[in-house]
Amino acid sequence: CFSHQTWAQRKNFPLIIRGFYRLLWSVIHIPPSSAFQFQINTNGFVATTEPTSESTYLGKMPPKFGMIAALQGDLDTSDGVGRVFFRQDSSPEVLRRAAEHINRAFPEDDEVDPTHAVVITWVDVATKESQSRGDGVNKKRNTFQLVIASLETASYAILLYARGGIQFTSTPAGDSNVVIHAGFSKGYVQGFLFSSQGPYYPSFSTGTQFFNQSAPMFPVFSYNLGTCANNRNKCSQFADCKDYSSGYCCHCRPGFYGNGIQCVAEGKPQRMNGKVHGKVHVGNSPSPVEFSSNDLHSYVVVNDGRSYVAISDIPYTIGPSLQPLSALGGVIGWAFALEQPGFKNGFSIIGGEFTRQAEVTFMPGNEKLTIRQEFKGIDEHDHLVVSTTLEGRVPEVPRGATVQIDPYSEIYQYSNNLITSSSTRDYVVSLPDGSTETRTYQWRQTITFQSCQHDLSSRDMKPTQMLSVDQVFVMYDVMEIILVFLFWSGLTSFLEWGQPEENPCFTGRHGCDTNAVCRPGQGNQFTCQCAAGFNGDGRTCYDIDECREDPQICGFHAICNNQPGTFRCECEDGYHFDSDGQTCIAVDRPVDACEEGTHTCDIPERAQCSYTGGSSYICSCLPGFIGDGRICQDIDECQPGRCHQDAVCYNTQGSFTCQCRSGYYGDGFYCSPGKTQCEIHRDSLLAATEFGPRGPRPPVGQYIPTCDENGAYEPMQCHGSTGHCWCVDRNGQEIPGTRSGPGSRPMCFDHGGVQPPVGPTPRPDVHPLPPGTHLLFAQSGRIEHVPLEGYDMKKDDAKPVLHLPEKVIIGVAYDCVEKMVYWTEITSPSISKASIQGGEPVAVIRSDLDSPEGIAIDHLGRTMFWTDSVKDRIEVASLDGSQRRVIIDSDLVNPRAIITDPPNGNLYWSDWNRDAPKIETSYMDGSNRRVLVNDDLGLPNGLAYDSQSSLLCWADAGTHKMECMHPARGDRRKVMEGIQYPFGITSFGKNIYYTDWRRDAVVAVDRHAGRESDEFQPQKRTKLYGITTAYSQCPSGQNYCAVNNGGCTHLCLATPTGRSCKCPDNAVGVGCVERDSGY
């Protein structure tokens, strides 16, 4: 969220913005000027003209005036709580963040750098309601933001919704409630026949559908003025660009047809590919038939109007009942129908990018089916791409029955960016017993598209056309489980229908090659002409191999690929297309100045360099220092009151220390006269001992603490009789997991070394962790922590460690060596890290990820492992994200949780495949893979491994059980039953902690007692995801990769008997040497 300032309570207040006329110019076509005025409205929108009364637009979208709706409804700011903030801002930070949103939303376009921004924030606005008792504090409230960012030739609007900031999705309007809206409306415009409603682009209009999403949404809309000089590559390669007074338009060249953005050769057959999704009920069945990426293919012989449509993998339970739905493929017939003189088919008018929604109502049962199709344009193979969704119910057609659909005509009405049609159709069902039934359905469809408004001549399009379908054939093949439609379609005038042209070119009875154009002559005369990219006499046409005829047709550093009727140019490896889309230039490979040490940040002891992608980086001062990151100066934290009154403050680089004065004891923040806690502890034990000739002797078996020169507990304490040693905190309490046996010593850190710096953190949403052991857990766009006192959660001290409102964080892991938290997130799939002692988040991996979920750290080998539930694989990489290698990529369906056992070189993961859930293990190099558990599992979401007890534990959201086992022995045992919906799980000592989706809580379970011992519910009640333990000291143990990378050149992956040296998957020419397991 962008910060805000300036507020107002009036319904409308004007804001004059200089340099922003291009936004309104492209929206409402006002004359350019150096400044203009628009209205910011407390009802959640910006108006480009004076808004009409509320009764004309509340619940009646789109409005008659120009509107940018961030979250429009009947909102209230008069209660003293709701506010509206706005400002103009050209600060580098705001412009950088706006650019990040824009470039993420338009990845195919050139990156932009806005020069100005307007930030408008609606904070805690409630619905406008009649007067009632109470002060309104408990009302539901919404918080959202609109940012308008501009550069010289384009303006962008960014809509931002805070996680948890949207609490209601409708507002009162009269005697009913209406849903809130977001989007763009141009208002009323002068059309080519009459004034009509201009384009309306809703971002969403049904609150429930949007706000139940698991991730915050960032709609970004672009309005480009521009000219052909800097937008020519937006046109098809078979189109010319033409400038107009208000912008530019693309026009297909002779021999091609389309809208200029999409152009195809006249006469050339057209293919279409896509997928079908959705759920459809048949008859009275309560259970729907689901479509999941069923293939849809179509082939159109353009010069005679024939179109074939086939949908595969249609089960027999629904296949016969879909036969009446010629509407599924009818839009293809309209898009490429034969054209009578003066009329155009759909593709000639709107190209291949449009949305079509059809509603079918079957009579007399009133079953309803909605068909939604997103046409996404022509791909690199010259195929039209479509995505189809079916939702609703159809009447049953018995198995073995056939369907006959008679020829029909359908009227299409054309207006500004909108095409509609409706009709009533009959079809005949021939039943297996020989009888027939005539049935009827009503049909309505809407086609929305984006046309070029700058070319006024395009408005000469006929407002009404009739599609004539002369023949329809439909068949369901039960053996091949495929549904097939065949159409013969042509376009003619509604007013002149009944007297169609009889020229063979208009009827399709001409005999030209399928790759030829039929050219009408006088009367019944015609000629056949091969389509562009083909040679021949028109009756027979042959493809031209442009790549062979002109080897240099694509230019230098390019590869030519011949295709039917055309060719494609691709740049060689190491090159990419320049902005003209034609010239191949060398790739300007990004340089990570932070890694190479070529940055201009201050020294690492004072500043941090954060790589931000490309060749960019950010310098920031470390906690305890101040400056711009390039020059950082120490902050003198020794201000009055920092330390106890009986202590001396010593300023250090980046921090400070407090030390009690002579004769006083304590940690410097509290000092008291007399002995320290350690000395009192030690002397109380020694006082009970006997004195011999060599001084006091404690009884055999008695532990005596050791104190340092300042009277504090030594970080490592040892038992003089047994030889065991362990680490203690500053209060002398043993740190769990640090005890070692005789002859070995744990690595214990000095208590002074774990003090967090006192002073400002580098950003307000990152809070350094205090000393001790903590639980870290993910909650949507944040990572929070709960300190542990022994095994108890200190719930009052819980707070966020990191706040990333635009992300959905799934897995978390902790590196105890560098004090780093790592996490996976799925909104823009990536793996990132941040220091828990304060610092900017750093993206570690951002490419070749689809849905990274579980993540685990090998703190000894300095590697990380993660699962990807879409790519169905497990990968490993070094902690900086380099040296990636896939170690498991077979027999995985939904891998989620993953954990490491670094001292023993083992890896464990769960797969919640609903058909065959399992828990597996392997060595860290992926070898010796085997299944540990595959029976009595449902949804094993979380895994935890306790190194002290060697127990592998899991929580199952399907069986609602928590269980543990020794992986080597297989002695599985139940810990607890009746848990609700666990997601993540971690262990610490005798306790297991898990996150629960139903309870929105972190739950503690005593593993020995088999019962819950505590629960923590964050203040923000949303789903909790991954959880991990952030140890105050690294667990004891070593593996072969802990020293000198195990002697490996690249990846060192531990195994129980040694290690394997492995090369990353992209290790080409880097001198990598692989060695099998062993040492």
Automatic annotation (TrEMBL):
<dbReference type="GO" id="GO:0030855">
    <property type="term" value="P:epithelial cell differentiation"/>
</dbReference>
<dbReference type="GO" id="GO:0060070">
    <property type="term" value="P:canonical Wnt signaling pathway"/>
</dbReference>
<dbReference type="InterPro" id="IPR000033">
    <property type="entry name" value="LDLR_classB_rpt"/>
</dbReference>
<feature type="domain" description="Nidogen G2 beta-barrel">
    <location>
        <begin position="268"/>
        <end position="501"/>
    </location>
</feature>
<dbReference type="InterPro" id="IPR009030">
    <property type="entry name" value="Growth_fac_rcpt_cys_sf"/>
</dbReference>
<dbReference type="Pfam" id="PF07645">
    <property type="entry name" value="EGF_CA"/>
</dbReference>
<keyword id="KW-0245">EGF-like domain</keyword>
<keyword id="KW-0964">Secreted</keyword>
<feature type="domain" description="Thyroglobulin type-1">
    <location>
        <begin position="675"/>
        <end position="748"/>
    </location>
</feature>
<dbReference type="Pfam" id="PF00058">
    <property type="entry name" value="Ldl_recept_b"/>
</dbReference>
<feature type="domain" description="EGF-like">
    <location>
        <begin position="543"/>
        <end position="585"/>
    </location>
</feature>
<feature type="domain" description="EGF-like">
    <location>
        <begin position="501"/>
        <end position="542"/>
    </location>
</feature>
<dbReference type="InterPro" id="IPR009017">
    <property type="entry name" value="GFP"/>
</dbReference>
<feature type="repeat" description="LDL-receptor class B">
    <location>
        <begin position="905"/>
        <end position="949"/>
    </location>
</feature>
<dbReference type="InterPro" id="IPR000742">
    <property type="entry name" value="EGF"/>
</dbReference>
<dbReference type="GO" id="GO:0005509">
    <property type="term" value="F:calcium ion binding"/>
</dbReference>
<dbReference type="InterPro" id="IPR018097">
    <property type="entry name" value="EGF_Ca-bd_CS"/>
</dbReference>
<feature type="repeat" description="LDL-receptor class B">
    <location>
        <begin position="862"/>
        <end position="904"/>
    </location>
</feature>
<dbReference type="InterPro" id="IPR006605">
    <property type="entry name" value="G2_nidogen/fibulin_G2F"/>
</dbReference>
<keyword id="KW-0084">Basement membrane</keyword>
<dbReference type="Pfam" id="PF12947">
    <property type="entry name" value="EGF_3"/>
</dbReference>
<dbReference type="GO" id="GO:0007160">
    <property type="term" value="P:cell-matrix adhesion"/>
</dbReference>
<dbReference type="InterPro" id="IPR024731">
    <property type="entry name" value="NELL2-like_EGF"/>
</dbReference>
<keyword id="KW-0677">Repeat</keyword>
<dbReference type="InterPro" id="IPR050778">
    <property type="entry name" value="Cueball_EGF_LRP_Nidogen"/>
</dbReference>
<dbReference type="GO" id="GO:0005886">
    <property type="term" value="C:plasma membrane"/>
</dbReference>
<feature type="domain" description="EGF-like">
    <location>
        <begin position="590"/>
        <end position="633"/>
    </location>
</feature>
<dbReference type="Pfam" id="PF12662">
    <property type="entry name" value="cEGF"/>
</dbReference>
<feature type="disulfide bond">
    <location>
        <begin position="718"/>
        <end position="725"/>
    </location>
</feature>
<keyword id="KW-0106">Calcium</keyword>
<keyword id="KW-0272">Extracellular matrix</keyword>
<dbReference type="Pfam" id="PF07474">
    <property type="entry name" value="G2F"/>
</dbReference>
<dbReference type="Pfam" id="PF00086">
    <property type="entry name" value="Thyroglobulin_1"/>
</dbReference>
<protein>
    <submittedName>
        <fullName>Nidogen 1</fullName>
    </submittedName>
</protein>
<dbReference type="InterPro" id="IPR011042">
    <property type="entry name" value="6-blade_b-propeller_TolB-like"/>
</dbReference>
<dbReference type="GO" id="GO:0005604">
    <property type="term" value="C:basement membrane"/>
</dbReference>
<feature type="domain" description="NIDO">
    <location>
        <begin position="70"/>
        <end position="228"/>
    </location>
</feature>
<dbReference type="Pfam" id="PF14670">
    <property type="entry name" value="FXa_inhibition"/>
</dbReference>
<feature type="repeat" description="LDL-receptor class B">
    <location>
        <begin position="819"/>
        <end position="861"/>
    </location>
</feature>
<dbReference type="InterPro" id="IPR000716">
    <property type="entry name" value="Thyroglobulin_1"/>
</dbReference>
<dbReference type="InterPro" id="IPR003886">
    <property type="entry name" value="NIDO_dom"/>
</dbReference>
<dbReference type="InterPro" id="IPR049883">
    <property type="entry name" value="NOTCH1_EGF-like"/>
</dbReference>
